[in-house]
Amino acid sequence: METILITGASSGYGLETARHFHAQGWRVIATMRTPREDVLPASDRIIVLPLDVTDPDSIAAAFDAAGPIDVLVNNAGIGGIGIVEATSVEKARELFETNTFGVMATTKAVIPQFRERGSGVVVNVTSSVVLADMPLTAMYRASKMATEGFTASLALELAYVGVRAKIVQPGYCPTTRFTANGGDVSELIPPAYAGFAGPVLESFSAQDDVTTPLDVAEAIWRAVHDTTGTLHFPAGPDAVALAQAR
Questions:
Q1: Which of 2, 166, 140 is nearest to 69 (CA)?
Q2: How many CB atoms lie within 10 A of CB 138?
């Protein structure tokens, strides 16, 4: 039985991915900052563990408790929408600590066991914001593009030892906690930019073909099982359209 460890599995993409892989017969290690077993099916193939990807001790404890795994999905992330002028350096660092450095840290934690076995898959979840220039996303996009660059180079290194690295790029999903995790948007839109930001925010909510958590879970499933050397897996109709246009 194969085992997958998913970060940020308390809601959204991570939760749906945990449910999806469990339904396919996998053993699932669902990690989250505040463990909630009630969001997942009761099963001896599901283990819920605490994990804060910005805390080295938390990472070490989680991987020690999880034992050997076959797949790592770096899904934990925080959102960030706002004008650059109004975004503090502290906020930018917070985005990078979770969205970029957290991914690097958990990946480094799992590489030794994958390398020793000569098998394993790392799937890093980024965003469709990397596929097009989008206003109000500069800091968030920067953190996700850094993760894309990291993963692309990582894939070349790991291929040498029989391990695969993949990128899943979700589109816009209004049902996730992206905005909630990103803080109060109003504080990051100064009055001088209100006329610019208003229509942009309205365009987000007006999208028809948006991404669902299941779209992302299915894209992660495809990425895990891909043996063609494909690196990028856009998830959701809007992400697929952006990738094709690019």
A1: 2
A2: 18
Distance between CA 31 and CA 50 in Å, rounded?
Answer: 6
Reference 97, options 146, 38, 132, 62; nearest CA is: 146
E strand map for the chain:
3-6, 27-32, 46-50, 71-74, 121-125, 164-170, 232-235
Instruction: Map out the domains of the chain with their CATH numbers.
Output: 3-245 (3.40.50.720)
Q: Is the pTM for the entire model greater than 0.90?
A: yes
Burial 101-112 (b: 16+ CB within 10 A, else e): bbbbbbbebbbe
Q: Tell me the three state secondary structure of residue 207.
A: coil
In the predicted structure, residue 175 carries a pLDDT above the cut 90: no
Looking at 140, 160, 172, 193, which residue is catalytic?
A: 140
Residue 132 has pLDDT above 60, yes or no: yes
Hey, what are 153's tokens?
């180079």
DSSP string, 56-111: HHHHHHHHHHH-S-SEEEE-------S-GGG--HHHHHHHHIIIIIHHHHHHHHHH
Is 140 one of the catalytic residues?
Answer: yes
Tell how far CA 138 is from the center of its chain.
Answer: 17
Read off the pLDDT of each residue in 156-179 and give the average, rounded to a whole number: 86
Count of C-beta atoms within a 10 Å radius of residue 15: 22
Residue 215: burial class (beta carbons within 10 Å; 0-12, 13-18, 19+): buried
Task: Decide: helix, strand or coil at residue 168.
Answer: strand
For the chain, helix (H) and strand (E) counts, in that order, are 9, 7
